[in-house]
């Protein structure tokens, strides 16, 4: 079935069904003779050949159909595919303008699915206007109940959806504040320690000057300080074990030369990757055992100052990265619809959910970086990634492996979010995208996360979302077209 397929229906013939024939249909079996007469006069019969398209999803809902004979199939559009939702030959089943009785709210009524005749089929047909009049005039109490039910469901979904978005925003805000607090606190601690070290350096410089150090020795000491700092900047990173061994060596070296509080200074040099060979060279070039003690401490202060400034730089860089991730996640001041690299949204979502993912979950990213950009609503897709990742972490009870993978499949980009949880049973998989369906305890789930994700992916982006699951391997597969969706 394609978007351009024409619907070719035989002319509807009015007055073809008798009252007795109408009464055989379960919808009409309790109606009075007068009501059946009205239906016979206003309804008509229509025949559709095998394979014929009776109505198309998204077209204006202008007719109400009741199956008299034949076999029909209802289907929904998912990306480029037609997914059959119902196949039946039961006489009396109805479809089409089934909500024509609802009060006019200004929103055009459209067919919610497509219907095709699988065999030669015959229908009893009422116009949407006639069907709406019948329901409102003949069953006023039922209409009040049905409208209340429809309005109640819509309001509940809107209210719960809004509450869910607010709860998600609150959780993300709390997580962001938690993530920001760590580097901010680290920067504050480093700044406080830096202030103390700079003050100590000033005092040590005063002591050096008061000790009547020869100008040439003081210049040499300054040169040595710069050389040591430069060497520390280029030193390879050491493991914790290597650093501990180096501290012991440096402590022994300083103890042999009676360096004041050598065991306190040694970790600073070890952290900078400075070994005993460097200190021996410093000792030789100074040529003064009396000056060595003060020089070691002064250079140690300089080294620690550099390390603290690096810590501050790392902490503020982390804050900047988090703010950037938050902007990417929310897409503040950016167009709602644009061509995007899907990996940017995935990465920013993982950053924003870092506090929820926790240390017990190992995150594996298998990205195909050669994938082209896709047309999308990035903020909406980030909501999908948030729902899928959050569900995966909860399914694993915060302990397992979360795998986020991207790859090409035909003309679609696929994002796979997988977890190593216990899996989803076939019974649950059948209903997992239904609104309000949830397996979580009362108060812990609204049942709208996956329903919202489905509507964003399928309705908003012309894509597809499915789930494959077995114990230890559950994957949600989101397919997004490389080309501009018709609904965008």
From TrEMBL:
Its EC number is 2.7.13.3. Keywords: Kinase, Transferase, Two-component regulatory system. One of its GO terms (molecular function) is protein histidine kinase activity. Residues 359-484 form the Histidine kinase domain. InterPro entries: cNMP-bd_dom (IPR000595), cNMP-bd_dom_sf (IPR018490), HATPase_C_sf (IPR036890), HATPase_dom (IPR003594), His_kinase_dom (IPR005467), RmlC-like_jellyroll (IPR014710), Sig_transdc_His_kin-like_C (IPR004358). It catalyses: ATP + protein L-histidine = ADP + protein N-phospho-L-histidine. It comes from the Bacteria. It is an enzyme of class 2 (transferase). Residues 27-135 form the Cyclic nucleotide-binding domain. One of its GO terms (biological process) is phosphorelay signal transduction system. This is histidine kinase. It comes from Actinoplanes italicus. The lineage of its organism: Bacteria, Bacillati, Actinomycetota, Actinomycetes, Micromonosporales.
